Records
---
Amino acid sequence: MKIRIHFSSFLKSLLLLITLGTLTQRAEAQQATLVDNIVAKVGGHIVLRSELEFQHANAVGQGYKSPNLRCEILRSLVQNKLLLARAEVDSVIVEENSINGELEGRLNQFIAQIGSQEKLEAYYNKPMSEIRSDLRRSLKEQMTVQKMEREIAGKMKVTPKEVQQYFNRIPKDSLPYFSTEVEVGQIVKIAQIGTSQKQAAREQLEGIRKRILAGEDFAALARQFSQDPGSGAAGGELGFFKKRELVPEYEAAALKLQPGETSPVIESMFGYHIIQLIERRGEEFNTRHILIKPATAQVDMQQTAHLLDSIRTRIMSDSITFAKAAKELSDDMATKGNGGMITLPNSPTTYIPVDKVDPSIFFVIDTMQVGSVSGPLPYRTEDGKEAMRILYLKSKAVPHQANMKDDYQKIAAAALADKRNKAISEWFEKNKDTVFVDIAPDFKTCSLDE
């Protein structure tokens, strides 16, 4: 079968989103085993009917309209599976530390959204260890697809001439109309934990360790004391992991243990741990742990506010630009590489419609002048850390129809996305015969060749 995939940037972004809903869909899809639930086979990967229908409902909910929507979604799903299959052949690997970092952030976000770990487990009717495992597989697949796309088209750029040519191809009556938009930046400083807080956390964990060595049950104490939202309720058990899939400090301590043995207190980016090795199976190992996080004291927040005040003073006196300060001083990894500018998920530009601005930001910038920087504001990071930030209102655009003068950045991003999509389609044309693709009979009418 000839496969030439064409798909919209909207659908491409939509199908890569990992949300509570997509996690639910994946959990359900993994339970489907009947042949008639498979709508496509791509190498060793399959597309399930439940997966297709969920993405269709999600697209409709997002307002996407097309007479052949299911076929477009199928093409995009087949494309992702092709990328995964070729990633295996070409040994394209996503670093485990990157997956683990994203996993922890997503889990904390989900727990915050639904209210508690217990509510999350009740929602899925499964323990946190299984939810973690499901989400990890989804994230690994998503990040592998993204890395393959970067391998194919990641280094592409567009010239001003190409941007103008792309804009000229848009019919005048189809030019988008942009509502009021803003560009907002942030510099985040995470409150530093004082020595006394660290010592208190370590001493608490040392006391728990003594109780374990005296004969108390590790799992029972983990359920009582562990502050890890992902494993505490499961007696601290993480499940089987391979080498380099957990943070280095944890793995190094775990691999020194014999089954049933408990480690000394160790420190990682998450806090302080004691670890018990449950079982080693070839290159995999299963552990349980108890995590205690040092408490954040008020004095730390005050010191953080003072530090941000000094950064703000330097920016306002023009001794450093906001972008340079964000790159060098911000603790927010998601924005510091972008000069501190906040973007919407999967958005190629820094412009944000005001109706999509986070309320905690909107009510601050609503009273600010363009070019000004706010005072320090309390902030909680996605992984639950206490922090403070300053906000920068870079620009504010009035409602208007798209034009090259005001919207060059957005038009250039769209032109680049179009160029990359064409490159990926060309790549498929050259590589389509390297992976076996089979489509279910009731979807044969979907024209995957167009």
Note: The first helix runs from residue 9 to 16.
---
Amino acid sequence: MAATGVRMGVVGGSVAGCAMAVAGVRAGADVTVYERSAGALQDRGLGIVVPPALHERLVGAGYLDAAMPTAPVATRVWLTREPGGRSAREFARQPSPVTPCNWGLLWQALRAATTGARYHRGRPVLSLGRTAAGRAVVRTAEGEETYDVVAGADGHRSLTRRLLAPSVRAAPAGYAVWRGTLPPSALAEHPRPRELLREAWVTIGFPGGHGIFYLIPRGGGAGPDERLLAYAIYATPPGRSPGEVAHVREIAERHFPAEWAAIVARGEHTAMTCHPVADVRAPLTADPPFLLAGDAAGVTRPHTASGAVKALQDALYLEEALRTSASPAEALRSYARERTPEVARLVELGRRLGRAQVERAPDWTAMDQGAVEAWCRATLAGATSYLYADAGADADAGADGPPEAAPDAAAEAG
């Protein structure tokens, strides 16, 4: 069936929510989006990366405008600090095509594609329920509405998930990720890192953690030479508040090669955030008339770089299910069969990547090309990842890599 006549509510108007709204509109549904924030979401978020094939599919399907700026690169470069010195040692290169984006620009593109949906900003959903006839009830301060389908795209603290799986709780990893962006001027006096970042995204390994670096578009008509430098740094937090920029600078000074330390430790951040790493997943991604999308369905450790990728894949599958199923309930059951195993796979992959890169990080200074390739194969253990193109990767599957959009519009990283 086409979803003509189907009433669809979407809880959350961020990337996942806008993608769900586009899916519903394209399938023919009457869509209403409830976004709790009254502010401008385009100002949130940091870096995000999607597989090139998924980006092309989203453009072809009309979810994204081809004019949305991106900063594609094809290679991953591994660096560490030379033992006993401060210079950078490159110890591996791998094919790893990715399409980095600016979270705010991605949200704007998806929001523009929701034409035909009603988008209520500053209207939080207070509670959800079911009618005796099995329809969904959405309650806000303005009253209540009933829907044939409600998509919970309300992030890692999802109200919708609490309705479907009230006993599910997040499992902390015991370490944190610091994310930020630096202006183009941070690279001005460092030509070697600047040239490297024009062709690659970079992993810097250090004892007990690693950092990810890559360029993202700035927006506002800014050109390639005006891209922001996005980063994510994983480590065990100090006793004091881990959100301090001072701690990121301390890590950089202590562990990074000299040029990279200067960029991070002395650059003026345009944005900076920190949060503890954790994961959580719902046992089912749909129970008609409700479904879960993006971080509401499952939060993986950000090494998987799957937050926004998963949400976009969720939307594409929902559109197909609504178009081809005999009823909304059948569409959601099909969605659950497809998306639930993927969430479980990504959560497990994230745990494995976290153990390998932070909790039991190798001696990066002893690694070389062959050691990295063997380490990647052992870490993936047969799993697919678009960032490991030479290891049988699935072109649309999320995995360890540069930052993406994380819970509540923060960025996510590998």
Note: The CA atoms of residues 373 and 400 lie 14 Å apart.
---
Amino acid sequence: MSHLPVQVLSPLDGRYRAAVSDLGEFLSEAGLNRARVRVEVEWLITLTDRSLFGSAPLTAEQKLALRSLVTDFGQAEIDELATLEATTRHDVKAVEYLVRRRLGKLGLDHISELTHFAATSEDINNLSYALTVRDAVQTVWLPKLNLVIDALRSSALEFRADAMLARTHGQPATPTTMGKELAVFVYRLERIVRQITAGEYLGKFSGATGTFAAHVAAEPSVDWPALSREFVEGLGLGWNPLTTQIESHDWQAELYSRTSHANRILHNLATDIWTYISIGYFRQIPQVGATGSSTMPHKINPIRFENAEANLELSCAILDSLAATLVTSRLQRDLTDSTTQRNIGVGFGHSLLALDNILRGLGEIDIDRALLASDLDSNWEILGEAIQTVIRAEVSAGRSSIKDPYALLKELTRGKRITSDDLAEFVSALDIGAAAKSRLLALTPASYVGLADTLVDYLP
């Protein structure tokens, strides 16, 4: 009998695995189960540290052995959990049984009944998701985003004085510099990064309906909310005291919405870079051995930025859906969040893949200063804004009697291509002060960039 190779449905686990595999450490099923084991183990240690229900504090060696269930979590545990779940039909119960088995091997059978004590599955799950999402964002996704921001910042500084024709509405407009335009994206992304970095990762540990009912029934004298808070905060998470069976997932909705916002800024960056490549402001650096087109040998396609666009859109579709649906749970609990949260890694995976493409793409382009200069020199009519603004200032200062400067320049420039000589002749005949006339005669499209160069210094 022949056996088919493993067939993966998601390209993130196939074609693009190398680019996103670091997320699997946290946002895979194995990563989630390792976190579940951690929560179960730490709850056992918390209960025994307080000598609850006839237990005694574990020795340092016993705690180390227990915690090694997390640090040594590997393929054997993954396989065992799969076998257990085939019987239990319940993933968290399988984790509980795994921990109980390990307690027996460690000679800690006497505390086995404290495993999963007074906990509902969601007590374990919500903390596990908070831990895995936090670690994935902070150790994988954000560092990659920061690499993109660093690359953009470097380019913004390098190109800060490279004047280029702006194209508002796709039409020739007041010049800017390439550096200033890239700095805009750095500023936007840094702002979102600060919001994401300041976000909360919340957890609850309060039983089947968030009331500590089973806890109080077992031992009324314990301050269970205080112990719950200490436990949750001991995991490095924020404590949510008011919940149903589930933690309300508002922090997740906030994080995924902000991540989608970052994705959309990156999407804007990708489309702009693609356009600059299209009009020749950036030239692509040929990569050895690469093929741009299967039939047109001359082509170097901007595939990095096109792939980024598509993956950012996929990421937003998933993360937007999560943000919209996770905040609703019928009454005290429904199971819709269970299946949707399994796609968190897919949402971040497509974003991470896009970041990888953008970072590679930025390293494969260079500015074409000659084309920038040629484009500027072909569009002297864009100085119409400067001329009419100076005339208005002169009129206001009493140094000109020109009526309706805007209409005057509109008549001269709208829908027309004019030369430097045309403008020089026009300015020379203007009824304005000598100093203003001198400034306008010295102005060129390449020098009409205002403070674009110095604005780059506002980068955080």
Note: The longest strand covers residues 173-177.
